[in-house]
Amino acid sequence: MHGGNTQLSVAAEEFLPFIADTDIAGFKHPHRNCVYDEVAACASMGKDTWENMQPQMDRYWGEGFEGKPFSACILLVRRNTPQIAKLEELWWEEVLHGSYRDQLSFDYCRWLLDVPITFIPGDPFNSHLMRVNGHN
Asked: How many CB atoms lie within 10 A of CB 42?
């Protein structure tokens, strides 16, 4: 799965080595390493409101989620497994009942379900693997 503003520069099969040891792979966020920093960035850029994001983040913090590592959900390589299906269901529920900024809930859901991830090396916005276009 990749974002609507992303186009692969290599064949999809090129990503298979990244899921050799885990069921999911993606990039770390190149600019922030914590979801709580991302909330501040989203609020300052007007991508969502504090009022919408803060209760969700308070709940995560209260449950012990430290917010790291922080994934850039621009591209995720996934196996079709029951564990990943459960992750996707929980992730969708978080988006429905919290911030629509799905990136804020992804690593929380992984943490809650103990789903390991392989991080693809590099910056997703400057990767030979894909091209990222601006959102319209």
From this structure: 19
pTM: 0.89
Contact between residue 57 and residue 36 where contact means Cβ atoms under 8 Å apart: yes
- 35 and 108 in contact (C-beta within 8 Å)? yes
The one-letter amino acid at 132: V
What gap in Å lies between CA 28 and CA 17, rounded to an integer?
Answer: 17
pLDDT by residue for the chain (136 residues), tens digit each?
545 566 787 888 888 999 999 999 999 999 999 999 999 999 999 999 999 999 999 999 999 999 999 999 888 999 999 999 999 999 999 999 999 999 999 999 999 999 999 999 988 888 888 777 664 4
Query: Two tokens at 64?
Result: 């012990």
Beta strands 24-28; 118-119: pairing state: parallel
